[in-house]
Amino acid sequence: YNPVFAGLDRGIIGRAPEAVTVLANNVPQPMNIEPGDIQYWTFPKSSLQAPYAKPAFDLPLNLSATTNTTCLENDLIQLAKKQNTTATTRNVWLSFSVCDQPTSTTPGTAGLPPQLEVYLSRSSTNQQPDKERHDQIVTVEGGYGYVNLSTVSDDIWVGVRAPQAPDGFEGIYNYELAASIDALYTTYFNGDPKINDTQITAWDTDSNSSILWTGDITNSLSNTAIFSRWMEMDPPFQVYVHDQADLSFQSMNRSICGLRNHAKVKKSDNRIVKIGGQPKQLFYVNGLNSSTSYYAIMTLKNGSGNSTAGGGGTVWKATSFTTKSDNNCQIIFNLPFCTDVAYAVPSNPILHPDVTELGLLYDDYANKSYQNFSKSLQQIPCDTTDSAKYSLARNCQDCDNAYRAWLCAVTIPRCEDLSASSDDKRHLLPRNIGAKQFINGSDVPTAAPGNLFSLENRSTIHFNVSRNSMIDEKIKPGPYKEMLPFCLSAGVKGVESQLWTSSAGR
Q1: How buried is residue 5: exposed, middle or buried, by Cβ count under 10 Å (0-12/13-18/19+)?
Q2: Which pLDDT score, from 0 to 100, does residue 166 have?
Q3: Backbone angles phi, psi at 329, to 5 degrees
Q4: Residues 235/271, Cβ–Cβ less than 8 Å
């Protein structure tokens, strides 16, 4: 039964037309839609004065900070800020995510299915906005779109249209639409294109895995509660990895539900670590293919879900990386002594298939080399009066940290493919080219003038050996290239306390 009252239209009596679905605050609505169809939604006026929702996450942030924040921390602060007003008009955020789309019926089909179209109306006279009649179009890119509507005092009407799929594609679309008076239910950060601001860095790879980490999560000092909470909490971020050759993924690489449904790699070893003195989240992703280019996309796992502000999650701009082609470089990390080491090192998976054992082999070697320095440092009067100290700018702990960073960088070399090149050739140094075979048993190329294995190079001592004898004697990685240690962030830090190091080491 549909009541009809003379002189009153349906917008006044507050009931949506039969073909319109009502949205609630911070409650996403998933929906299938066939290509060629259009569906209608409304966010009613009655929801504008609903109570504000609690935030979806509880991260240790200094919300009053306006300076001295990292790029990532600033993004998180923006997520935590939400509307808080008793005015009769409010802002309304609409977020739109594509979770599924038509797929190609023929492998290698060129082109992509078109993006869904979203139309808005703020007038009760147009309760079914479409391509011809609308007040605003929501741009959908990479499977995500959003809009912030200010001073809203009445119903909002939304139309979602699925264009016809091109030849060679079949299936339906699936999407989620959410409205909120608090903040965006799902968020995408595109970063600053001038500085390639993705908030995640692919630090290194080997032939089947990659190590990635965030920037500094906070600039708070190590003796603050914010710093301690970050180091103690469960990792809040997640990374999705996908083969760049799969072009269809580009249609949903900004959508968190699209990532969950379609990313090839959804699991990684995640942990909060202190690298370079500040908290970062580290991601170790394995099960990859060699010589393959991938996208890595970081998300914030807003696990509180429905009815919370921002409960749908956050996606950051993708970064890219390519795995190595050779099999004699292996990523190691989470070492007990060289805690900043998280990169690929010379390896031999035939002799050392256990990555943990390989890491400890390097770590123990560095730790033993450190013992003499530690004894020398103990001769320095660290806990004395200022007038008796060697330096007021640096203390013994600074000296120890700097020496340890330098020692780990020079005793645990970073490994690159033998075919790797650099704009500055001083950064990459051939090693072990005097070996007769690669680790797979194949012979090294015959010496020829001008090639890497020339007689001239083979007669150069440092081209024929590794940085330390332990690598050649115990690991036996075969020919590779080494990235020299002062190209590493850990190595650079060793300069900071060089006077201290020189004093203690004398």
Answers
A1: exposed
A2: 86
A3: -120, 135
A4: yes
* 400 contacts 498 by C-beta, under 8 angstroms: no
DSSP state of 471: I
Handedness of CA 292, 297, 298, 302 (dihedral sign): negative
Cβ-proximal residues to 131 (8 Å cutoff; 6+ apart), any chain: 117, 119, 161
Binned at pLDDT 50, 70 and 90, residue 106 comes out as: confident
Say if strands 293-300 and 313-316 run parallel, antiparallel, or are unpaired: antiparallel
Measure the CA–CA gap between 438 and 491, rounded to whole angstroms.
Answer: 29
Q: Give, for 221, the enclosing helix (H) or strand (E).
A: none
Say how far apart CA 141 and CA 191 lie, in whole Å.
15
List pLDDT tens digits, range 142-180: 999 999 999 899 999 999 999 998 888 899 999 999 999
The predicted-structure confidence for 363-391, as pLDDT tens digits, reads as follows 999 999 999 888 888 877 777 776 666 66
How distant, in Å, are the alpha carbons of 147, 326, 330, 414 from that of 446?
Answer: 63, 19, 27, 26
Q: What is the largest CA-CA distance in the chain?
A: 100
pLDDT above 70 covers a percentage of the chain that reads 83
DSSP per residue, 240-275:
EEEETT-GGGGGSTT-HHHHHHH-SB---EEEEEEE
Do 235 and 272 form a contact (C-beta atoms < 8 A)? yes
- What is the enclosing helix (H) or strand (E) of 504? helix 498-505
Q: Which long-range contacts (CB under 8 A, 24 or more apart) does 201-205 make?
A: 201/319, 202/296, 202/319, 202/320, 202/321, 203/342, 203/343, 204/331, 204/342, 204/343, 204/344, 204/414, 205/288, 205/321, 205/322, 205/323, 205/324, 205/331, 205/344
Q: What's the rounded Cα separation, in Å, for the pair 23 and 42?
A: 6
Beta-strand ranges (E) seen in 432-471 are none
> Mind listing the pLDDT tens digit for each residue in 214-249?
988 988 888 999 999 999 999 999 999 999 988 888
Q: What is the spatial distance between Cα 214 and Cα 309, in angstroms, rounded to a whole number?
A: 24
Q: What are phi and psi of 38, to 5 degrees?
A: -135, 140
Q: Give the three-state DSSP class for 294.
A: strand
pLDDT of 212 reads 95
Stated as kind and residue range, the H or E segment containing 179 is strand 173-180
Contact between 13 and 98 (Cβ < 8 Å): no
- Please state, in angstroms and as integers, the Cα–Cα distance from residue 404 to each residue in 62, 398, 412, following that order: 32, 10, 12
Give the CA dihedral 191, 193, 198, 202, nearest 10 degrees. Answer: 180
Alpha carbons 51 and 58: distance in angstroms, whole number: 19
